[in-house]
Amino acid sequence: MVDLIAMKAVEKCFPLKIGTVSVKEVQTSLFTVGVHKKIPKKLANTMKSVTGLDWPSVRQIKSKGSISVMWFDHTHVAIMGITPTPMLEGIAAVTNVSDAWYIVDLDGIDVRKVLSRVTPIDMRENQFQIGMTERADLMHMQASISCTAEHRFRIMVFRSMAQTFVHEILVAMESVAARAEKV
Predict the structure, then answer these.
(1) Residue 82 belongs to domain spanning
(2) Position 183 pLDDT exceeds 50
(3) SS (H, E, C) 116-181
(4) What is the mean pLDDT of the segment spanning 135-142?
(5) In Å, what is the CA distance from 29 to each residue of 5, 77, 97, 106, 116?
(6) Beta bridge pairs of residue 79
(7) 0.85 exceeded by pTM
(8) How many domains does the chain divide into?
(9) Residue 20 falls inside a structural domain
(10) What CATH number is given to the structural domain containing 101?
(11) Which of 13, 32, 93, 155 has the fewest CB atoms within 10 Å of its CB?
(12) Is residue 10 part of a domain?
């Protein structure tokens, strides 16, 4: 039998800071919960008992400590930081996708300027507020972008695009930092 060796998605040394923005790789569990358009009350109640968090609205992320529940798309909610119990699996389609996604946190005063260079989302504070999440393009990659604090965003891309993502985000960080020095 062949022994498989787990490898990191990116060989960069994190955390890394350029200018006022730092990037840090996040190691966490990630499960999706598939639902139909109407969320059964039993599922919402079970989710609350399992995670301690209410079911998120569209484009919303809720967090308590290291546990997060976020809207993922029109038929999925994502759970991070906890392994769902069989109680939840008996009600909805629960899938472990931890190894399919590459997750980072971007922190810093200029984080919105950095993200504005790589995504078409309006990153202004009054448009993309704390607790909001969005599925969108990040350069040419599909991404989940969530605002988790005043100057912090959690970015998720497919693991197969991790190297490209890191390259693109570092170029954007360098550009914002260079511009700040010259202006």
Answers:
(1) 16-182
(2) no
(3) HCCCCCCCCCCCCCCCEEEEEEECCEEEEEEEEECCEEEEEEEHHHHHHHHHHHHHHHHHHHHHHH
(4) 94
(5) 19, 14, 8, 19, 28
(6) 31, 69
(7) yes
(8) 1
(9) yes
(10) 3.30.1360.120
(11) 13
(12) no
